Each structure stands twice: as structure tokens, then as C-alpha cells.
């Protein structure tokens, strides 16, 4: 996918991410947009960890069954409730913003007449809508950090509210509370690149979420199939409240009535 970002001097730079991936571009501190053509060298997670080159990673123990089962369990936990929380808020936000829903449907009908995963990266507006959902309702609403060993303060934890950060006017402007997929699209119609320290839904730095690309793949695939075929309305009187917990769930779920388009 071709995206636009700005350098330190605010100059627009256009990047072809597929080309960068081919060259082994390591974009540790920035969001990795889903941009895949199928990678023929790809392997499954289990095989990947079992065949790791241990000389490179001294803390990884791929020959140890517990290590492998912990890794796989981690993936299952990290990738399950997060990707079920996000669609709930996504469809709720679309029901509140029907014009965004119409734009997504138009984009799908124009750019993806037949489903092809390789074409998902053409759906820029839909991508922006997913980002807006994760900004306003991050499935992991806060993150905490603590030092590995005592530092200036003897023992402390820093809690970062990803939920609050996504809504701060000083960061996002006066329309911070509004759902605007356009926010993620540049004047030339491409995706705007954003530092992951600003868009913190997937965390940032070395412990960033390993499932980012998969999340966009899942969310966009599901959205294409649902929005292309169905219209939905939130049932009148249904209350939507957030449950304050490790995961940002919707109290009572989302009740909708569905009709075929
Ligand atoms: C909307 C979807 C998702 C969101 C918002 C999300 C968010 C996050 C966040 C905030 C972290 C950092 C947690 C921490 O620092 O304690 C994380 C870590 C992780 N995520 Fe996700 N995640 C999502 C989906 C997925 C999926 C689909 C997978 C894989 C199937 C996945 C795999 C992981 C793994 C393995 C880690 C641990 C990385 C590490 O510590 O090295 N995530 N995720």
C-alpha cells in the first residue's frame, strides 16, 4: 500500500510499503498498515517459534514445551477478545454515523466488486473507519509500564490511558470526540501514516502488538462482507455503556436489527 507521512520538517513523503518490506524495512515505531500481497515464505506461528534461530535470541527457548505453550496461549488470549470488542464498537459508531456507512458501502462497491483479500488495501476509507474505532474505543483501554529494576523512584507503575489519549483535544484537535474516518486520509486520497506513540491502540515500541496486520485483515474482511450485504439499526432504547475492565467491552452487547441491502 502506498501511504503518505511527514518528515521532521513537515515535508510529505510517499512510501511504497510493499517495496519497503521487500527491502527488509524495519518500522519499529510506526503503525504497520495491512498491505499484504501473499508472502510465499510465510509460515504458521507455531512452526515459526519452534524453528527460531536461538543464537539470535537468548531469552527464547523454542525447545521448551512450556515456552511454546505460553506463546500460543498468549496469542490466543491477545487475539480473541480484542478482535471481538472492536467490531461491536465499529458497528455502533457506523449506526451513529450513517453517512460514513454509505461512504464505506460506495467504496466497497466501487473498488471490490468481488472479494479478493489482495484488494483490501484499496479500501482506504474503510481503513480510516477502523482506525477511528480503535482511537475512540481502544479494545485495550489502558496500558501500564513499570521498571525492570529500581530506578529513581523505588517502585512505581505508570498507567497510560489509551482511551483518554485518543480523545485529547491537545492531540487530536477540537473535533477529537467526533468519528471522522477522513482524519486518516491525506489530501491526495492516501492513508496518513501516524506514529504509534500517538495512536496507541496497539501499544508502541518493542512490545507492540504482533497482531496489528491480522486485526486490519479481519476487521476489513468482516466489514466488507457485512456492509455489502446488510443494513442494520440499533434496537431502539438499547443502552450502550462501556465496561471498565482490561478490555473495553460493551455492557449488554450490541442489539441490532438486520435487513438485506
Ligand atoms: C483490535 C485488535 C487488537 C488490539 C487493540 C490489540 C492491542 C494490543 C496491545 C495494546 C498490546 C500490548 C499489551 C501490553 O503491552 O501489555 C498487544 C500485545 C499483543 N498482541 Fe494484540 N491487539 C489486537 C489484536 C491482536 C491479534 C489478532 C493478535 C494475534 C492473533 C494479537 C497478538 C498480540 C500479542 C502476541 C501481543 C504480545 C506482544 C509482546 O508482548 O511481545 N493481538 N496487543
TrEMBL record:
Cytoplasm recorded as keyword: no
Entry-linked InterPro entries: Cyt_P450, Cyt_P450_CS, Cyt_P450_E_grp-I, Cyt_P450_sf
GO biological process, one term: lipid metabolic process
Binding site for heme: 209
GO molecular function per UniProt: heme binding; iron ion binding; monooxygenase activity; oxidoreductase activity, acting on paired donors, with incorporation or reduction of molecular oxygen
Cofactors demanded by this protein: heme
Keywords per UniProt: Heme, Iron, Metal-binding, Monooxygenase, Oxidoreductase
Transmembrane segments annotated in the record for this chain: none
Biased composition, class Basic and acidic residues, residue ranges: 1-14
SUPFAM superfamilies with a match to the protein in the record: Cytochrome P450
Stretches the record annotates as Disordered: 1-21
PROSITE patterns reported in the protein's UniProt record: CYTOCHROME_P450 (PS00086)
Keyword match Transport: no
Family: Belongs to the cytochrome P450 family.
Identification of the protein by name: Cytochrome P450
Amino acid at each position: 500500500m502506498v501511504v503518505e507521512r511527514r518528515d521532521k520538517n513537515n515535508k510529505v513523503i510517499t512510501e511504497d510499503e510493499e517495496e519497503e518490506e521487500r527491502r527488509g524495512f524495519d518500522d519499529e515505531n510506526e503503525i504497520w498498515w495491512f498491505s499484504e500481497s501473499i508472502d510465499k515464505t510465510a509460515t504458521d506461528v507455531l512452526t515459526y517459534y519452534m524453528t527460531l534461530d536461538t543464537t539470535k535470541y537468548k531469552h527464547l527457548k523454542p525447545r521448551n514445551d512450556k515456552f511454546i505453550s505460553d506463546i500460543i496461549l498468549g496469542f490466543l488470549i491477545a487475539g480473541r477478545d480484542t478482535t471481538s470488542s472492536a467490531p461491536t464498537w465499529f458497528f455502533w459508531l457506523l449506526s451513529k454515523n450513517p453517512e460514513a456507512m454509505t461512504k464505506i458501502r460506495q467504496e466497497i462497491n466501487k473498488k471490490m466488486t468481488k472479494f479478493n483479500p489482495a484488494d483490501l488495501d484499496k479500501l482506504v476509507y474503510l481503513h480510516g473507519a477502523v482506525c477511528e474505532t480503535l482511537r475512540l474505543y481502544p479494545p485495550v483501554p489502558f496500558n501500564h509500564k513499570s521498571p525492570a529494576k529500581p530506578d529513581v523512584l523505588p517502585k512505581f507503575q505508570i498507567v497510560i490511558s489509551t482511551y483518554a489519549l485518543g480523545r485529547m483535544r491537545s492531540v487530536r484537535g477540537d473535533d477529537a470526540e467526533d468519528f471522522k474516518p477522513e482524519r486518516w486520509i491525506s489530501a491526495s486520497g492516501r492513508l496518513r501514516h501516524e506514529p504509534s506513540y500517538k495512536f496507541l491502540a496497539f501499544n508502541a515500541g518493542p512490545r507492540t502488538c504482533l497482531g496489528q496486520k491480522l486485526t486490519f485483515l479481519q476487521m476489513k474482511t468482516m466489514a466488507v462482507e457485512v456492509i455489502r450485504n446488510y443494513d442494520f439499526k440499533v434496537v431502539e432504547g438499547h443502552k450502550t455503556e462501556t465496561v471498565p475492565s482490561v478490555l473495553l467491552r460493551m455492557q449488554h452487547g450490541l442489539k441490532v436489527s438486520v435487513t438485506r441491502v
